[in-house]
Amino acid sequence: MSCCADRTCRALAVAATTALVAVAAAGCGAGDAGGGSADDGRVTVLATPAPLLDLVQRVGGGRVDAAAVGGLGGDAHAVELTPPQVAGLTDADLVVHVGGLSNSVDAAVALRDGAPVVDALAVDDGAVGSEDPHVWLDPLLMADVAADVADALATVDPDGADAYTAAAEDVREEMAVLEAEASAALAPCRGATLVVSHEAFGYLAGRHGLEQVGITGVDPHVEPTPARLRAVTEVVRAAGARTIFFDEVASPDVATALAEDLGVAVAALDPLEVAVEPDYATAMRANLAALRDGLVCDAA
Ligand SMILES: [Zn+2]
C-alpha cells in the first residue's frame, strides 16, 4: 500500500528528504540506525513494530543483523525518525514494516527507491480490511509475512534462501498451532462484544466472530469524544459486556473510569506494540486467557 497519494504524506516525504540531505552534507553515516550491509557480511534489516523485528530474527537467524526502526521501546503508532535514522532506513538491505502505522516510517520507506521492502499490510487477506495495521496480532497473517520476509531475504542473500524458507515454514507451523488454540478457546464466545481501549484486535475479532468496539479507533492517540464515550457506554449496556480491555498504548485512565461508571471489570490485553515479552507465543496465549476470562462466553 503506498501512502503517498495525499498531500500530507508527500510533505512528510519531502521533509524526510530534506533531513536526509542535511545528514549527508554533515558527513554522517547510517550511524546508530544500523543501516547498510553489516561489516561482518550479514544482511542488515530494519523492522517495526517489535513483533515484526522478532519475526525477522526468527526467519533470518544468524545470517541477519536486524534492528528496530527508530529503536526499541517506543510506541509503534508514534515513531518519529531522526535524520540519522532516516538515513539508516534508506541504507538497510531490507526494511520490514506495516504501511499506514507511522507516517514518518512510510515517508522514509518511500525514499528507498525500489530497494527491498516488505509491507506486512500487503498480506492482509481481507479478513477485516486493509485499513487496520495490526497485522501482527493475527497468527495466520504473521505466517504469510514470514514467507514474504523469507522471499525478500533470499533476493538480498540467495545463499541463505533454503535456510530462510525452512525458518518461515517453522514459523507457519507455530502460528497454525496458535490459531488453532485461539479458535478452540474463543468458539464459545462467538457473537460476544469485545470492548477495547484501542482497536488493535480487529483481525482477531473478525476471525472469531467477536464484535470489537473501541474507545479510541485504530490510532490510540485520537482522544475519544464525549459522543464516542456515550456510544461505547450504550454498547456495553446493550451487549451486557462484563469487561473493558485496556492496553498500555491507549490511556488506561479512560478505560478504567468508564469501567467504574458502568460497574464492569477492566483487564489488560497486550497489543505487542512496544515490546514482545517474554515471546510472541506466550504473549498471545496470555491475551487469549484474558479474553476467555473477560468476554461473555457460553459455559464450557
Ligand atoms: Zn495500535
UniProtKB/TrEMBL annotation:
Biological process, per Gene Ontology: metal ion transport
A family per Pfam: ZnuA
Family: Belongs to the bacterial solute-binding protein 9 family.
PANTHER family from the UniProt entry: HIGH-AFFINITY ZINC UPTAKE SYSTEM PROTEIN ZNUA, HIGH-AFFINITY ZINC UPTAKE SYSTEM PROTEIN ZNUA-RELATED
InterPro entries, per the entry: Bact_metal-bind_prot9, ZnuA-like
Keyword flag Signal: yes
Keyword terms of this UniProt record: Signal, Transport
Origin species: Pseudokineococcus lusitanus
A GO MF term: metal ion binding
Stretch forming the signal peptide: 1-24
Protein name: Zinc transport system substrate-binding protein
